[in-house]
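Ops channel
N.P.: pipeline sanity check, posting one input/output pair.
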């Protein structure tokens, strides 16, 4: 028999005399979801054929989702009490493009925000006679449910410094001021789009002049097109983080990161520092291509940050990538470096819950694969090599699979613990004390254990899961 366990389990369950966690009667009657056990749903994809995804924070017990549809002709909203529930929630069309004229072209990248007791939808639209004459617009609803189309009416276009290609507006409040961040083609700059910030006087009106905070100059930002777009804001640990997407919308699409001190003047270009390298990129090993146009939300536990993004599960595309419909909405947990900066890892592939393991005798270190070795080290800038999945094995056992190289598993070969392709070693997860023991299926007297910085086999030992 195998068991699932987590820090949440420790809070919800009780410890018996033998140190084994016992479920409460209520737990015994109701199976826990992946989100309860691991902090976030492991459904992947969450929603098929929905690009540029946006998931709100939970409002009055509900999450709301919107995103681009492949036809680029309408704005949809769906709501659910959990992030996982968005996958099967009914979808409501809250606005359709007109048959002619202004806003009758491509409808892109809607975002849903709650401001001053009302809902606002930010979106980009082209014109019927020029679908790529893209400008930014805002819809408003005073109704409690943003999925009700009856409440929405157009507030108008967001007027910026230049009447030029502009899109991907997002908004956030900080220290009593509300800001807009967006992508635009500035006439004097020979790129497709750069990122700008301005203060707002209303949800649809700029109070200040725009300030350019990023423009594509690095090699990973200029593949196919010179693009910085799709900004998303996360305020944590005394800093403002803005992720953005770069390059063409095929497998070269990727995410970058800007950072500003939370005390800085956000309307100064010098306040923003761009990471020299992308933070989230295509991963052929997990079959995730072109990850980007993300947002952030918080899981049902109220504290686990969640990365929401789109990606395809194949590289090769026939025709213009913009019209390939299979950019799917995906979610995964966002981790953090010890210095308080976000740690993205890799876009994970299909499968069940993802865990990190720490030996009980070294709780601030993680098990990681290093080549063919399974070692125990302090956290560093690499996340994916510390992430594993328990996957069902033969005869009721489980296999420990690498997340970033799904063809590799933990194997015990001639007594040595290795990470490699080949027939994986069956394990049994046994809950004990504050964690689990990992017992070898073919030798019940042996377990995985930590010894001098490496994982070996021997007597029973405890691992903590996170």
């Amino acid at each position: 028999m195998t068991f699932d366990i987590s820090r949440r389990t420790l809070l919800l369950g009780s410890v018996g005399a033998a140190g084994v966690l016992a479920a409460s009667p209520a737990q015994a009657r109701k199976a826990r979801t992946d989100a309860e056990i691991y902090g976030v749903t492991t459904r992947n994809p969450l929603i098929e054929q929905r690009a540029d995804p946006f998931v709100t924070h939970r409002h009055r017990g509900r999450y709301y989702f919107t995103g681009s549809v492949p036809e680029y002709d309408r704005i949809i909203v769906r709501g659910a009490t959990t992030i996982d529930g968005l996958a099967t929630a009914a979808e409501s069309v809250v606005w359709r493009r007109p048959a002619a004229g202004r806003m009758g072209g491509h409808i892109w990248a809607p975002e849903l925000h709650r401001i001053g007791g009302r809902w606002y939808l930010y979106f980009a639209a082209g014109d019927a006679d020029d679908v790529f004459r893209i400008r930014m617009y805002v819809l408003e609803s005073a109704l409690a449910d943003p999925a009700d189309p009856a409440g929405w009416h157009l507030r108008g276009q967001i007027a910026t410094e230049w009447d030029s290609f502009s899109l991907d507006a997002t908004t956030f409040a900080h220290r009593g001021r509300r800001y807009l961040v967006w992508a635009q083609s500035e006439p004097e700059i020979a790129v497709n789009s750069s990122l700008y910030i301005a203060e707002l006087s209303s949800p649809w009106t700029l109070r200040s002049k725009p300030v350019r905070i990023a423009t594509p100059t690095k090699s990973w930002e200029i593949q196919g097109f010179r693009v910085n777009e799709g900004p998303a804001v996360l305020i944590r640990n005394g800093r403002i983080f803005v992720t953005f997407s770069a390059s063409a919308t095929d497998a070269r699409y990727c995410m970058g990161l800007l950072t500003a001190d939370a005390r800085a003047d956000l309307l100064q270009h010098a306040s923003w520092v761009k990471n020299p390298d992308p933070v989230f990129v295509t991963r052929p090993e997990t079959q995730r291509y072109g990850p980007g146009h993300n947002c952030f939300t918080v899981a049902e536990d109220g504290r686990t940050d969640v990365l929401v993004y789109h990606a395809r599960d194949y590289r090769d595309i026939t025709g213009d990538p913009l019209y390939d419909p299979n950019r799917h909405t995906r979610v995964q947990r966002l981790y953090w470096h010890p210095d308080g900066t976000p740690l993205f890892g890799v876009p994970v592939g299909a499968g069940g819950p993802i865990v990190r393991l720490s030996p009980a005798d070294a709780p601030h270190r993680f098990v990681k694969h290093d080549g063919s070795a399974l070692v125990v080290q302090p956290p560093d800038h690499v996340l994916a090599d510390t992430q594993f999945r328990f996957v069902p094995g033969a005869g009721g056992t489980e296999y420990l699979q690498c997340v970033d190289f799904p063809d590799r598993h933990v194997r015990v070969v001639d007594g040595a613990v290795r990470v490699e392709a080949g027939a994986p070693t069956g394990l049994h997860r046994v809950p004990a004390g504050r964690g689990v023991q990992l017992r070898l299926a073919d030798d019940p007297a042996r377990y995985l254990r930590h010894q001098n910085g490496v994982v070996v086999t021997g007597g029973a030992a405890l691992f903590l899961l996170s």
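N.P.: looks fine end to end. The two ends are 21 Å apart (CA to CA).
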